[in-house]
Write a structure and sequence with these properties.
Elements (H helix, E strand, L loop, with lengths): L3 E7 L7 H21 L10 E8 L1 H12 L7 E5 L12 E8 H11 L3 H15 L8 H17 L14
Parallel strand pairs: 1-2, 2-4
Antiparallel strand pairs: 3-4
Function: Single strand-specific metallo-endoribonuclease involved in late-stage 70S ribosome quality control and in maturation of the 3' terminus of the 16S rRNA.
Cofactor: Zn(2+)
GO molecular function: metalloendopeptidase activity; RNA endonuclease activity; zinc ion binding
Length: 169
Amino acid sequence: MPELDIQISVEDERWPDEEQLSALSERVLGAAAGFIATEEKQPFPPHPCEVSLVFTDDAAIREINAEWRGKDKPTNVLSFPAFPVTPGKTPGPMLGDIVIARETVEREALDLEKSFDDHLTHLMVHGFLHLFGYDHIETDEAEKMEALETRILARLGLSDPYAGQDPLV
């Protein structure tokens, strides 16, 4: 089982406390890492891989999104791989950063009629897969990434978040 060194930063007081977020992160990212290691044969280095999770708000993620993606609007999750990684290739010691915005997660969870924790879990898995080079720009890439997300979430006891939808493009 791959080892992860998960670093948590909470930038908005509306998030659950750091202990709760840490426990959730370890469970979710641990399951995702274990799944891609065994099912996708994703190699991991022999030492723990560091991943940083930043729990912030819409204002902060909007600035990051504008600076790094040229999109001046808030979004739910952004991922920043520390090194370029292709799925199936061994990552370096630092996987990268995942940034998640509180208000957007809340709003989307309500719109999707899902619990906040279930939607947050999905976004954590989604962001984590981006750190390994998975993407959803092209339809075939989106189908592969969404299938992985769905299978990982099923292992965590959650339903298919994409049921009845076209792949993300």
